[in-house]
Design a protein that fits this description.
3 domains, three-stranded antiparallel β-sheet, alpha+beta, 308 residues
Length: 308
């Protein structure tokens, strides 16, 4: 009897140790490898000690963490799978979380039959070792590979922001991105990333500086402080004063690099205007060379609404 109790105790300890290392998440195959039987897995699931997240993937008791959902997605796709695309960008903090209900992006070299609820699986033939990283125990695409994947799945605006944030945080530079761009020349969105890296890298990277300088000028002038990089009517804007219904956008070179981009920005402005927001666009040159005139424009846009 004591031996059986000791064996059961060892299994329980092993489950908890494994779960603690994986943000509370374990797979059925891992549980069987520890020594739990198929009936034991079913019994724990019925008792609520294992909560099914995906087929063959469980959350152990109360051990859930903010990264459990992401870890579960990776484990559900089997060995070698990694968090990728927008999910990776959010974990790496180069894109902001848009929607908690969005599916988890996972890249896998294996074939998967049928859809997996809650997951968006991207298949690739190969992931190089330098394209894989780890964040808080979660396997994830490297910052450079994540940006490559974003090039074909997010807007030009979000791509520019992601590159700028990654560079400012010291995650990547042009030397990291250029080999990937060359190696994946046929991928969707690669021309957009190639242009950004080759000709507009400086403009994109200084965009974040421009936002910081603009905010510093607003504070120095003692104007009401805006919220930065938030969603307004489904669009991420640089700065917004919600009470005054004013949006300020910092324009970069990439936004005027094509007629299509120009038209997209104007449509965006029109939709914000229809929702009752005024939109003012400022450039790096205006922030650096003419900050007083730029601030006057912003202050004049704020005052009428404030005194009504």
């Amino acid at each position: 009897m004591d031996q059986r109790l000791n064996a059961r105790h060892r299994v329980e300890e092993a489950i908890l140790e494994l779960a603690a290392a994986q943000h509370g998440v374990v797979t059925r195959s891992q549980l069987l490898g520890i020594g739990l039987t198929s009936d034991g897995v079913k019994h724990r699931a019925r008792a609520g000690r294992l909560r099914r997240i995906h087929q063959g993937v469980y959350l152990v008791g109360p051990l859930e963490t903010p990264l459990s959902k992401l870890m579960a997605g990776v484990l559900a796709c089997g060995p070698g799978a990694v968090l990728s695309h927008r999910s990776a960008a959010v974990l790496l903090r180069i894109l902001r979380r848009a929607d908690d209900s969005a599916p988890v992006d996972v890249t896998s070299c294996r074939r998967h039959r049928g859809p997996r609820p809650g997951l968006r699986i991207h298949r690739t033939s190969r992931l190089e070792a330098e394209e894989i990283a780890e964040v808080q125990g979660v396997p994830v695409t490297s910052p450079a590979r994540t940006i490559l994947d974003l090039a074909g799945s997010v807007s030009a605006r979000e791509l520019e922001r992601a590159v700028a944030r990654a560079v400012r945080q010291g995650m990547v530079d042009g030397e990291d991105l250029r080999p990937l761009v060359a190696r994946h020349s046929g991928r969707r969105g690669i021309s957009r990333l190639r242009a950004l890296v080759a000709t507009d890298a400086e403009a994109a990277f200084t965009r974040s500086e421009a936002e910081e300088r603009f905010l510093a000028l607003v504070r120095k002038a003692r104007l009401p402080e805006p919220r930065a990089n938030v969603l307004v009517r489904g669009f991420e804007v640089d700065f917004v004063w919600h009470a005054q219904r004013l949006v300020v956008e910092v324009d970069g070179f990439a936004f005027h690099a094509s007629k299509r981009r120009f038209e997209s920005d104007r449509l965006r402005d029109a939709e914000l205007s229809a929702a009752g927001y005024r939109v003012i666009r400022v450039t790096w040159r205006q922030i650096v060379d003419g900050p007083e005139a730029m601030l006057v424009r912003v202050a004049q846009a704020l005052v009428p609404t404030r005194i009504r």
